[in-house]
Records
---
Amino acid sequence: MTGLVVIGASYAGIQSALSAREAGYADSITVVCDETWLPYQRPPLSKDFLLDVTSEDNLLLRDETFFKKERIDLDLGRRATELDPGAKRVSLDNGTTLDFDKLVLATGSRARQIAVTGADLDGVCYLRSVTDALDLKARLAQAAEVVIVGGGFIGLEVASSAAKLGKKVTVVESVTRLLERAVCPLVSNFLHDMHLAAGVDVRMGESVVAMEGDNGRVTAVTLASGTKLRADLVLVGIGGIANDDLARTVGLKCTNGVVVDEHGRTEHPDIYAAGDCANHYNRFADGWVRLESVQNAQDQAKAAGLAIAGRHAPYDAVPRFWSDQYDAKLQIVGLSARHDRTVMRGSEDDGKFSVFFYRGDDLIAADSINRPGDQMACRRLIAAGVSPKPEEAADPSFDLRPLVRATDKANVARRNL
């Protein structure tokens, strides 16, 4: 008997399976994953896992008993090699095939490789999986001088972890500020200063042109400026590429990921995609985006799971992101690219502040450092299209909660109509 087949045991893969089951999908569900690990959390890999604050067991999303109870079969250590949409069949690398009524592509993304001489030396690492994290943790224990290529979320989180472990850390970033595409200059500068205070050497506007080694192991990183940085460990974090190969091979529309609608459905009515591998129209971006975040993976997968079960609740969540570095929790809600005005709430000196982004009079996003209350409020306000005046947002004595409560009451009233 055919049923639902999910390719990928990521947040999106597991959530789509669970949402379909919870919504009443009664047929078989099989999740295929090319890793042998039970489905696990990825965000801790660059932080608590490297620092031994959390263990491999604590990374698991659910245990085997849970999946058996939900009648979800895990086919681990197997890679999907071919997809036949017409026959509705998936071929695996062990020669077996799976027939499906519905299929979810939750294949995630892979690390972008750096294309310089010496990039294949031992000690040049990437971080995407728990296998990568185990390798990186073992190498960090032996390393003294660590070079991080890329000042994005992964790079800065690993830099923070390595600095806490007492390593000499250098971050190399080709643009003019950290997290340039994700946060505003004020937050970038705050994080920059925080890393400097922790002893991290941050090189902005620099690019790597080569890596040198001895007996096959990396020993140095050469920058375009001619500077040579000693390194016995290099972590490359320069972005991700959507794993949309299966979809591309069979002609499904792909543009920086598998193109899907608000229910996660591709051009094929029985094939869905969700998470890092999917590109969707997002009203908060006013355009098509591929979001790499746990929130997007879970919420998009819920929409796909519901649609698979015959229930339909379109994905319309406000995008959210977060990052933990040292004692700072960075949280982002909304997409700020189209803003034309910003106001600050809180105190940078206290290490607790938010930057609210406006387009005209509309609040469209907020970056926060150690102000989770602002994030909770902005998430609900942005979703409802309700905005405090900029001068109100900038006034720390102005209470956002009544505005949020009024928004919640209005939403309840609309649902009861």
---
Amino acid sequence: MKLLYLFRTLFVVTLLLAALTTQAQHPDSYRDDELLNLLIKKNVLSQKEADSLRAELAVKQQAKKDKENQHGITIGSRALQISGLLQTEYEGFEQTGVTNTFLLHRARLDVKGDINDNWNYEVYTEFAATTKLLDAYTTYKIADWLKFTAGQFKVPFSLESLIADSQLEFIDRTQVVNALAGRSTDVIGNQNGRDIGIQVNGSFAKLDDHYLFDYTFGVFNGAGYDVTTDNNNRKDITGRFTVHPVKNLSISGNFYNGVGFYGTPAKNQKRNRGGFDARYVAGGLSLQAEYDKGTDGAVKRDGWYAQAAFFVLPKTLELAARYDTYDPNKIVKTVHAQIYTGGINYFFNPWARLSIDYLARHEEATQIKNDVFEAQLQLTF
């Protein structure tokens, strides 16, 4: 009897494995219920045993779905993918008269997908404070070395500006990037580093498992994002070239030449940029540095930063430090500012993270106590 029971068990397991394997390859052809009903009809399984197997299969299938969808919701396979970003922040100011506050830093919804193997699109919207359309573009790939993008998207200038907000090691970007990459303190206003235009980019000269070179060249309005028309007859041009001498090391140079409509009163003026940057990642260690300079009308500006981050607990606890210096006017000698930032990032899991930063500020013009404490909870889906 024991031998008969063993053979019957092995037979059932073999049938189930074969059915599950076939169903994975042809999900519309086979169903677990049909197989179990057949085994009951043949008196191989009792109704109680079949119900128990159904329950086990349901649990395993749900666990598999949860694991596959932990980073986002996928609708219609490749055609439509929906994801999002939520960042809730607290700011505590040392400076007298400045109010400590909670704020909704970012609340974003990202919709993207593939039209075919070579053609994709993305629509990215910000809902915090006011609703803004961040990205709305389509990219067509002819080959790895030749891709065309048209619409509204990030201008290919500055490494830190191009890194996704959810992937930054610190809560805020540096002074020089905010001032020269179309962000919070740029003369053209906060454009989130974006503009409307076209670009061509690609990678070439593959060595082992990575490309040696990347390039990007773009033409933009220069008026920023979420606008209907250009504000002058000039078009701005930008370019970025990256070398990867070894895997996980990127060394880049970039430029931006254009005309912006700004000033008091506002008028068309020169707005040129140039810079270089580098990033290296090895295991839990990341190193990054960047230098940028700009000319706005008759004013010359420049700045740089260097930072390091390391996971003291793999994929869980990251410590980070950054030195950030910026000179908003090379002629005036008392406006240079420096910020020393220390940060802690704790990852509850791949999509939930708590960041704590302390910014020690030093300005040459005025010696005031204006350090800042920041804490941010980030959720991605």
---
Amino acid sequence: MKYKTYIFDFDFTLADASTGITECANYALHKLGFQKRSHEEIRNTVGMTLNDIFSTLTGVQDRHLADLFASYFINMADDIMTDNTYLFDDTIDVLRQIKNSGYKTAIVSTKYRYRIEQALEKYSIPELVDYIIGLEDVDTTKPSPEGLVKAIKRLDATNSSVLYVGDSMIDANTANNAEIDFGAVLTGTTTESEFQQLPHVYIAKSLTELMTHVGLSV
């Protein structure tokens, strides 16, 4: 197999936390006096930083308000996010097969690392992921390649042996900026036609389909 290291985005790639994200975002908007947004509107912002989510939902470019939004969001998320994070049906099988095949795994996400760790603990699978890079671990967020570069170095991998798997154009651009291959999954809000605009090795409906395409039997 070409790929020896598999790096994943988290939200909408390995898991669906959109219910919790919607509740936290609307709580923060309400605290700041803004109108609540629909689940679909908020779902379309998943993968952005909290500050970018604020500006996208409100149209307001104000760093102080965005920071307050993030603070309120995080406070609510500490109470509800783990309970409202659900791994996709095939996530555990895919991660386990990668590990059983002797390959390495990592997660690079704009979500906080501790939040991802809590989700993996919830499903009792922290051992299936070798390394996690979250928002608190980088100076520049995706599509900056910083997180991927750190993970590749930490796992002692070569760019040509790494596949980054994600569900958004942000993920695709991040892989492109890091000069590694990208595999797209249609489990988020990005369409196949959108992914066709950027370099990719495959566009799949699920993790299982993508892994099968690159030669990993799941």
